[in-house]
Every structure is written in structure tokens, then in C-alpha cells.
Amino acid sequence: MSNDLLQVDYDSIIDRVLTGELDSQLAAYDRQRSRVKKIGMALIVPGLILLLGSHILKFREIGAVCGMLLMIGGGVIMAWFYKRQRDFYRRQVMVQLIRAMDMALTYFPDKGLSRSRFQKFKLFGSFDRYRSEDLLSGTVGKTSFEAAEVHIERRRKTKKSTSYVTIFRGVVFIADFNKKFNCRTAILPDVAERCFGKLVGNFLQSLNFSKEGKLVKLENVEFEKHFAVYSDDQHEARYLLTPGFMERLLAVQAAEKSPIRVLFLDNNLVMTFTRSGGWLEPPFTGSISSREMLERSLREVVGVLDIIQKLDLNTRIWSKQPSAAAGDQ
Amino acid sequence: MSVLGIIVLVFVVLFIFIFNSLIMKRNLVDNAMALIDAYLKKRCDLIPNLVAAAAKYMQHESETLTRIAEMRSQAKSVGDKSDLDRQMTGSLRNFMVQLEAYPDLKASENIMQLQAALNEIEEQLAAARRTYNSAVTDFNNAIQMFPGCFFAPMMRLSKRELFAIPEAEKANVDVKALFDR
Description:
The complex is a heterodimer. Chain A is an alpha+beta fold.
């Protein structure tokens, strides 16, 4: 951890949460999951055999329908149980874990960022389906923040069917920035330069198909390799992206598997982190009562809070005073 | 005749495009320099307040700061401004380090506000310097590379000087030396 603000004693938090009723409830879920898994597999495996076998045997249609029904039945039972387990984990376990951290944090499993607010960021272009949940908000040091899971999809129509393609699924983090600013500055992954080289890439970047600000060329070569910066104000972009801040952003990017996107808007810093699975959710298989599982969830929370420290947002030596909440801006 | 016409038209369009592009780059450089000037002035305007708040305690540094602030209006060239900026940055750093020796003064709300304002201006000034240097690099590249190199002498455009980054910002800070002064 970067400093004392996030010195989290994982063992002690888990000890406090894993007492009494919750511990027995988690153990009960583990037992139920193993039963549901057996029932599900008892339906899916014969269903699959029946479906494949019906091609050889005489009762082709009936066999295929019965096989399909068995498989669907098994799938529905398992999905129903997973949803129940997932809701229990988020509404009971995560709420208690975050409360036990004894920090100025609030967690709303069923709330998220509003669609209109996310749309205002204009970080991913257009989308048709929007879902957001797991809203975590609070203050770390002098910096207020909000974080939530967001899933956006775009409709793809073909002659035969309509399907949805995921554009982004992951965590959106919004923090009160430590400097005042007026314009919009976006830091996007530098796909053009990586695909077409520096010369063609720079030309494509300068065309700026998103039409959100002008390209800002910065001095940090490594930063320029990873990101393309667009801003309404060249000077303000450099005021926000100091040499130190660029290095810190590179360090945050280095710890991530997928490219991050950063936005400075309305005196807030917005960052997006791609996550393949759900944030603060248990895996489809495996025990939810184990200490490892709870520690992993806690580390997911701390990992997001640690961004404030990694980017040094608690340094408030400029004229801007800390605001009450990131969303207040 | 029509082929010659097309060639002439292409050259005219090309000339207009390059001419406008060079003028735009030159204006961006001038604009960036004006921004540096604005922040240098803003910083100098803050100094009387800072001096007034700390004059009793820190006579020597106050005098140095006032003298440099007065020199601002005399600086005309990029080199002069760059020198002035360097001297001012150094003196302000010393001033802030010496402030540590006066806990009462450092804790005063007035000084704290001035310090925050000064930090803000320093950061804005650093950004303005970088914006200027980026604009100058673009401009110098344009007039030294083909085809700008043919147009630049005709338009009386010459290479611009970069704004030197204060040595104090490049070197590691020798805190001991600062306290010993």
C-alpha cells in the first residue's frame, strides 16, 4: 500500500465478518451449491446424451426435444441458484465487509451511475443497453470518490437476428480532482499509433474522429506510446498532466491488463477499468465462504481506493478546496 | 492551356495552405508566449502581498523578491523572461524553505492562502512553458522542413528560441544547502 491511509488488516476484518449467522449462512450456500451442481449436471449430461443419441436412434424429434428440455432445465436451475448466491454475497457479505473496513465508505449493491451521467463522459461512443450497479462512494483522505460497475452494449442487427455486443464492462471511478479546471480533457488508448506507427498514427490522431477536443502532443515518449490526449485547451491539458502525473498514470496502466481511459470533466477525474467478470461478485464456481474469497473481494475494493494514492490526489497544495462528494460537481 | 491552368491552381492552393499553416503556427507561438507573460505577471502581482505578510520576519528574501518583481516589466526577449523566471523561481523556493523556520507565520491563514495561490501559478506557469515549447517546436519544424523552408525566408519567419526550463526544476533539490543559506 502506498501509505497509512489504506493500511487494511484483511485478517481482522474477515474475522469480524465471519462470526455468527453470516458464517453459517455462507456455509449453507456452499452446501446448497454442491447439491444444485449435482442436480444441474444430472439434467444436463443425460440431456446432452439424448440430444446426440437422437440422431442415431429412431425417435429423432422426441429425443432432441427431451434432450434440449433437460439441458435447459439444468441450466436454468444453476443460473437461478447463481443469481441468488450472487445477490446474497453483494447484499449481505460485501455490505458487511465494507462496513467492517471502518472507513468513510458507503456501498449500495443495487444502485449505480445514472445512464445520463455516464453518457456525458462520451468515452465509448454510442451504446444501446446500459446497466450499472455496485455503487461504492466515500472519502479517502481529502478526496471524495464514487465507483460503480458499468456494462454497456451496442445492438448489432443482421438480416436474421439482433444481438448485443459488449462495448465496455468494468469499473468506472470518479474522484474529486485536486486542481480546478474548466475544459474537457480525455486520455484515450493510443490505438492508431500502435497499429500504424508514429507517423501515420499521429496523422490519424490529429484527424480526431471523435470530435472531442484537439490532439495534445506531450513530451513523455512512453506516455505518448500508450495514450492519445484530446482537450479543448492545450494549456489546461498540460496543467493537469504534469510530468509527475503522467508517470503516475503510466504506473496505474502498467498494473492493468486492458487499456484504461481517463477523463477530466467538471473538476472531477473519471477513469474506466475493464473487468471481464463482475466487480465485487463471487465466481460461478468455488466456495464463497472461504477466507481467500472474502480477501479477494476486499482487495478489489482497496485496489480501487488505492488509485487515489497512486495518483496522489490527496495532495491539496493548490487553491482548490476538497469538495463534499465527487458527484456534487 | 487547361493543364497549365490546373498546375497554376494547384500551386496557388498549395501556397495558400502553407502560408496559412505557417502563420497559424507563428500565432500559436505568440499566443503561448503571451500566456507565459500573463502568469509571470500574476506571480509578480502576488509578491507584494507575500512580502507584506512576511516582511517583519524575512527582510532579506522579501527585498530580493521585490527587486525581481520590479524587473519583470523590463524583460522583453525570451532569454530575459527565461532568466527572470529562473531567478524568481529560485528566490521563491528559498522563501518557502525559510518560512519553515517560522511556524507562527507558516500557520497564518493569509500565508497559507498565498502559498496555495503561488503553487497554483507555479503549476500554471510550468504548463504555459511546456505549451510554448511545444508550439515553438512545431513552428521550427514547419519552417525548417520541406516545403516550409522555401516559404519561411519569403515570409521573414525565423527559428524561435525555446523557453529554458529553470535549472532548479531540472536538478535534484539540495535541501541542506537551502537551509544553510
